[in-house]
Amino acid sequence: MNNPYPVTDDNGAESFTRSLQPLWTVLAAFTTYFCMYGFRKPYAAAEYANAEYFDLTLKSLLVTGQTVGYAMSKFIGIRVISEMPPARRAGALLGLIAVAEFALLLFGLLPRPWNILGMFLNGLPLGMVFGLVMSFLEGRRISEALLAGLCASFIVADGAAKGVGSKLLALGVPEDWMPAMAGLVFTLPLILAVSLLARTPVPTQADQAARSERVPMTRADRLVMMRSGGVGLAAIVCMYLLTTILRSIRGDFAKEIWAGLGVAAAPDTFVTSEMLVGAGVMLCNGCLVFVPGNLTAFRLSLGTCLAGFMLILSAIVFRTSGLSPFLFMTLTGLGLYLPYVAVHASIFERLLAITRGRGNAAFLMYLADSTGYLGYVGILFYKNWADHRGEFLPFYLRICELASLLSLVCVITSLLYFSGNRLRPQDSQEQSNESSRTA
């Protein structure tokens, strides 16, 4: 495959630097989002035991408060991320993280249970971080590899952030101040990573020819793109909603699920299982970069989703046959992250490359993400106020089974919908007319 970052012969050092640019880009993206988790997830390592308000544990209230803020951020991001000019991305990233750390300081200062407000405000800016980082990487011939590397960060970071939180608690940091302290641990590497990410070259003309030009969107552009996707796009969004619910329950209540399996999960257990999942997902989804045909790659990415849901169902079946808790958690993690990352790294990227729609894949990602997190908020409210048994493992198994079966239906529906002549370049005249009417 041709190098998307051309190497010139006029200077050997400059040529070497440019040849390594994709590596630096994915490293900067990975580190940026990895560090973001240091501001979002460490609190989940604390138990907040013997603290109940409104007939709910403080832990459940904190998870719900942050998730509501995060879900609202996704809806705000539909417009903000899709319209963000490239020159403002780095500054916006640092600004969002600063607001999130201020919210964690507020969490430590306010008395319980009013410090839930700090956790809500923490989630509000963080939901837009992924879209800004993704915007640096999309629209390139190697976007799948870059985006798979980015997605590996949130798989590994989930466990790593909780590990940092657990270690800070072991050092005697109070539970309410531990999240803010964890954020400070990640501040310097995040600033360095964003500085490096800001130096990412824009997509080349060859990239644009292969994947379409990615530009800031207007409201009219967003309406045209949603209408052109039809039932197939709706099915993908529905599948992503179900996958987000699975991922969020597994991530936010990992400690409780491990306990239900009979394992007292130590910080190293979190990290080890997620590293294996991250490596497998990055390999499977990253390999799609070697598929030059956009339509073939799009269908293969949907096939990856099918394989993931079948893996989850198989793990549930074999759990009763002696499957170890560690292997069960690793397999279900791999099964849910295969489709989750496929949407981030390939499905929308290739769909936009086929249709040549005016806009960016980050918009489609936030369209799906906002729906996914809205669904998870609904599940949290159900879990908190309708299901009082407090048994996380049975609840998790039921959700895994139901979500996997429904997701299989969604993926097959999308494959059938896009199997005809529905995937074609969008009518540029239609877009032009729509933009004129909306302006």
Walk me through this protein's architecture:
With 439 residues, the chain is mostly helical. The protein has one domain (17-438): Growth Hormone, Chain: A (Up-down Bundle), CATH 1.20.1250.20. Helices cover 75% and strands 1% of the residues. The chain is built from 17 helices and two strands. Strands 1-2 form a two-stranded antiparallel ribbon. A hairpin with a 2-residue loop joins strand 1 (52-53) and strand 2. The longest helix has 34 residues, at 219-252.
Count of discrete domains: 1
Instruction: Give the strand order of the largest sheet, numbering strands 1, 2, ... along the chain.
Output: 1-2
The CATH fourth-level homologous superfamily: MFS general substrate transporter like domains
Average pLDDT works out at 85
Structural class: mainly alpha
CATH architecture annotation name: Up-down Bundle
Radius of gyration: 21 Å
* Distance, first to last CA: 41 Å
Largest sheet: 2 strands, antiparallel
By DSSP, the count of extended strands is: 2
Strand content: under 5%
**Unreliable spans:** 1-10, 427-439
- Which assembly state applies to the chains in this document? single chain
Shape: globular
* CATH topology descriptor: Growth Hormone, Chain: A
How much helix, percentage-wise, in residues?
Answer: over 70%
How many separate helices? 17
Compressed to H and E, one letter per element, the order equals HHEEHHHHHHHHHHHHHHH
CATH class: Mainly Alpha
What are the defining features of this structure?
single chain; 439 residues; two-stranded antiparallel sheet; disordered N terminus
Short description:
By secondary structure, the protein is mostly helical. It has helices at residues 12-19, 21-40, 58-83, 89-109, 116-126, 129-137, 143-170, 178-197, 205-211, 219-252, 254-260, 267-286, 294-319, 325-355, 361-385, 392-417, 428-438; strands at residues 52-53, 56-57.
